[in-house]
Amino acid sequence: MNRLKRWLAVCLLCLLTASAAAPAAAAASDTGFRDVPAGHWAASEIRRAVDAGLVQGVSAAEFGLGRPMTRAAFTVVLCRFFGWEMQTPSQGSFADNRNPAAWYYSAVETACANGAVVRKAENFRPDDPITREEMAVMLVRALGFTALAGLDQGLECPFGDVTTNQGYLTMAYYLGISQGAGDGSFAPDRAATREQAVVMLMRVYDRWKAGAPERIGVTTFAEQLTDFRGCGAVALSGPRLTSVGGLSSLPAAETAAAARDAVRASGAKVLLGVSGSQTGLQDKPAAIARAIAAEAEAYDGVLLDVSKLPENRRKAYTALAEALRTELGDKLLYVAADAPESDGTRYGYDYAALAETADRLILRTCRYDTQTGGFPTMPQEPLEEVYYALAALSDSTDLSKCSLWLTTSGLGREGNRGGVSYYSAEKLAELLADPLTERYYSARYADGYLSRTVGDLRTVVWYHTGRAAEARTRLGAFFGVDSVCLSGIGDASEELLEGLA
């Protein structure tokens, strides 16, 4: 009898032990690797990286949790991530990368060809653990942001223990790639584990693979376009705020109605564009808001744009936006504002309050107009200014509600003494088709430009190519910005629009 009781007790204990262990085993198996518990902080990112084909385990059953990521292994992952065409030259770039049969040989050479790896030392050190600093720098370079990282724009490095590659690690912070090791440190020399590398990669993955941005268009009544290029909303340029507290006259009712019908026929919301300067803010905000709302009765909303606002008009503009929000009710309210500039120029916008009040805050960055050795340098919305503005506002403003302003017309000069000229898509196409025209791309400003010389007259025009548009929208995605506003939808070239697709 005692033996039977003992036997039954053992059986019950086995059943209880099995039932208690089953959930843990099942949870661990969900990660795909037996050495990665389901509750591990990196488990979900490891699974996503494996599913995306970016990483593999050290074996079919183990990921290699806690093991260092080698420089060679991280380089291989980068090549998979960006889908670069593999390079296998007969001669390697480093003294320790001379064997084309090595599993990492082509990856190292491909990373070199794409700027992620630079030849600053004799050896690549493929088997060394990659440090946190090396990993962040390689990622920023691979993203094509080397020129930005090399600029001193007054953005303070948030990490007290960083002495080299400060621009790269500062950029890694603002892009959300790495928030450091805690306590204001980055631990740049610390070896990165395989799971740390995967988490950093997946942060980049989510932003790099972001979908096409929402498009907002700005146009005039006179254009009455029938093709609004996939815009979700289109603002029709309307009245201006006047210094006497009113609005300038609108186009004829028939013209306005035809333009609204054309926009709505494309499936887009139609907004009344209201522009002006600080002198139009002299009346009480409530009175101005009522006047705007009355004019916008037949529209789906309003785009308010008071440019170059001085500091002393900050409260007035915010109050107008808030009053207009109330007057419009459920209609859309978009507000445009000039962004802070890297040279220290500041404007009188309460960006945080405007982003909270409006459905969209459209950020317009500055353009350059300088002479470099007698050559006009006139990029519009230079990438470095976009980066600075978003970084400067990232701690205070909800950037997910923001839109980047993109100028669709070209900007240039004819001759050394000529004034600034604007070039429509049609004029740009004519210049680009001319056999005398030479076409270039500036990596520094991430912008295209052309040069055409006839006799002693040289024409230089800067304009956004598809590559330029893509660079700005991808940078914006790292800050959570998923929208662009095209300044003149009628001047948007097919090449520019392809860059937004």
Short note summarizing the structure:
The chain is 37% helix and 17% strand. The protein has 501 residues and is α/β, with parallel strands linked by helices.
Could you characterize what this model shows?
- The protein has 501 residues and is α/β, with parallel strands linked by helices.
- It has 16 helices and 15 strands.
- The strands form 3 sheets. An 8-stranded parallel barrel has the order 1-2-3-4-5-6-9-15, surrounded by 5 helices.
- β2, α9 and β3 form a beta-alpha-beta unit.
- The N and C termini lie far apart (79 Å).
- The N terminus is likely disordered.
Helix content: 25-40%
The amount of beta strand, in percent, is: 15-25%
What characterizes the major β-sheet? 8 strands, parallel, barrel
State the shape: globular
Number of helices: 16
Kindly report how far apart the N and C termini lie. Answer: 79 Å
The total beta strand count reads 15
Radius of gyration: 28 Å
Integer average pLDDT:
89
- SS-derived structural category: alpha/beta
Low-pLDDT regions: 1-29
Order of strands, widest sheet:
1-2-3-4-5-6-9-15
Q: What features would you highlight for this structure?
A:
single chain, 501 residues, alpha/beta, 8-stranded parallel beta barrel, 5-stranded antiparallel β-sheet, 15 strands, 37% helix, 17% strand, globular, disordered N terminus
Mind sketching the topology for me?
Elements: H1 2-29, H2 43-51, H3 71-82, H4 105-113, H5 132-142, H6 146-149, H7 166-174, H8 194-208, E1 214-220, E2 233-240, H9 253-265, E3 269-276, H10 285-295, E4 301-306, H11 314-328, E5 332-338, H12 351-357, E6 360-364, E7 370-372, E8 375-377, H13 383-393, E9 402-406, E10 410-414, E11 420-423, H14 425-433, E12 437-442, E13 447-454, E14 457-463, H15 466-478, E15 483-486, H16 494-500
